[in-house]
Amino acid sequence: MKHVVVLGGGFAGLYLAKGLRHAPVRVTLVDRRNHHLFQPMLYQVATAALSPGDIASPIRSILRKSTNTEVLLGEATFVDVEDKTVSLADGTRLSYDYLAIAVGARHSYFGHDEWEKFAPGLKSLEDALDIRRRVLVAFERAEREPDPVRRQQLLTFVVVGGGPTGVEVAGALAELRRFALRRDFRRIDPGEATVMLLEGGPRLLPSYPARLSDAAKGVLRRLGVEVRLETRVTEIDAEAVHAGGWTIPSETVIWAAGNQVGSLLRSLNVALDRQGRVIVEPDCTVANHPELFVLGDAAAFHHQKEFEVLPGVCPVAVQQGQHAARTILTDLEGHRRQPFRYRDKGQLAVIGRGRALADFGRLQLAGFFAWLTWVFVHIFFLIGFRNRVLVLFEWAWSYFTFQRGARLITGEISPVAPRDRE
């Protein structure tokens, strides 16, 4: 049987493997983590609304009914397109007849990788837990800080990037300090914490219609978020963010401003765009290599006139994974391949409790009904009945009680000596 190797257990890789579960092929899915992660809800883990297990499921469990599929825990480091082999970090080499690369993307600091230790991005559970720890520890340290200037620095949270992730994180942080934490401390008022959203462009959510971008800015400002547009970050250090000629004292910075693809794609020796994504053919394959698919965030797809390039969102990855599975089945049946066409079902962004934006082309919603749509769409895409029930319960509990149940500080906390109090 033909051997199909899939690199990455995200949406594209998972839907490709599931699409081949009844095909006469061997499938090997390789991922450096053992779980599939629902990335659109990572910010809810980072802001203590959900626990990690609510938005992640073991890949082996998801594919347990796919008897032709083997799951390997490993990291691909090199692809030899001529020899048709994939090398893993542990020295293992896998030969393939078809290869699908769906390794996703990491955050990009636009040449300033030294900023990452001060401003973590949000792409993995580890990132989300790190951000949650930093946010909660900042409140804990502010509780013990007698100096009002230093205390304000601890209670200033800066989000860099006005795309969907930045808007969602800023709104969630504003609600966390305004509602969930307001009765938890005795010496400070968490509601006095400052949440700032910095965007280098002229408006938030640039992929949305201007009307919805303005609505997002209005909602954030009503939540108490300071929105600064056309404010480009020039430096980040342990104590401040420098942007637009301003120096903003802050020790908790969250990066949501850009993406880049890892070094694996460079081993293909094919055309890449400025973000390191592979420029793919109309059927999502690499030029002159019909057996090599590149999907999801790793692909730059320029063959649909409505889009300059397809966005890096989960519906694109899902549909590309399904298309790759159909294409392989088409090859096995000896039929002609069809080009990929993305069916745009709209975009959604939430900006807090009962507030969201929905862009469905001619239909544009803002407010509670958009939020309900967001809730049910995200529940639908969550994999696993347990996850759906738990998340729905957590959302309902949080909505009616204004509380967040995942306010746990994990990991080591560097000791800070308490200062003398008068």
- What is the distance, rounded to the nearest whole angstrom, between the alpha carbons of the first and last residues? 77 Å
Indicate how many domains the architecture comprises.
Answer: 2
Mean pLDDT: 90
Q: Indicate the low-confidence ranges by residue numbers.
A: 417-422
Largest sheet: 6 strands, mixed
Q: If you compute it from the alpha carbons, what radius of gyration comes out, rounded to the nearest whole angstrom?
A: 22 Å
User: Which strand order does the major sheet show?
Assistant: 5-2-1-9-21-20
What is the number of strand segments?
A: 25
**Helix segment tally:** 10
Helix content: 25-40%
The best one-word shape is globular
Structural class of the helices, strands and pairings?
Answer: alpha/beta
CATH class of the largest domain: Alpha Beta
- Architecture per CATH nomenclature, i.e. the level-2 architecture of the largest domain: 3-Layer(bba) Sandwich
Task: Please report which band the strand proportion falls in: under 5%, 5-15%, 15-25%, 25-35%, 35-45% or over 45%.
Answer: 15-25%
| Multimeric status of the protein | single chain
CATH domain topology of the largest domain: FAD/NAD(P)-binding domain
